[in-house]
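Cross-posting from the chemistry board since nobody answered there.

I work mostly on the small-molecule side, so proteins are not my area. We synthesized copper (II) ion and want a rough idea of how it might sit in this target. Sequence and SMILES are below. Is it possible to get a predicted 3D structure of the two together?
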Amino acid sequence: MTILIRSLVSFSAVTVSLPFIAACSMMSGPSPASPSPSHTVIARTMVIRTGKEIHRPGWPQYQPAFWSAPQNSVVKLTIISHDSGASPLMMTQNDQVRGTIGGTEKVDGKTVSQIANNEISHTFTIPALGINLPIPVAPPGKTVTVTAEIPFHQAGSYLWQCMAPCATSPMGMGGAMVTPGYMRGTITITNQ
Ligand SMILES: [Cu+2]
């Protein structure tokens, strides 16, 4: 019992019912044999620091780059970016929000489904799950906050990466882009 309570507290879990179940059942992926009685809602926060801030110019960093959540949960993800630099995408389909409830994200509270390519600074992308959150440039000297609700159904270990060429050469795709712990990392969905 103690373990159960501690795990609930550490995940800041609350249970919700119909709206999330309805939203999740519309998402792709195998249907469970029987509907789960409720979904766990988990809050996770990532902060994007500039390379300058962490004293490694050209090496922007998501902090943390690794986190976990239980399967059949909805993660309320908050990404706070300190980066006011634009890194337009080479493959512009990643300007679209995908894989979130409603197909949208909120940028400083405003609901959007896309960010103009010349305003993109980073993305949070899980290719294997079709999840993509474009992160716009922050106003100079300020932060921008992106929030989204992401359902996770299947347990597993998933690579996430930034798709914007925000790092050092070649073509902005070196360094932080190919180094776990900076512009890529792993999300672990646990088999609770
Ligand atoms: Cu990036």
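Reply from a structural biologist on the board:
Welcome over. Reading the output above for you: The first helix runs from residue 2 to 10. The mean pLDDT is 86. Happy to explain the token format if needed.
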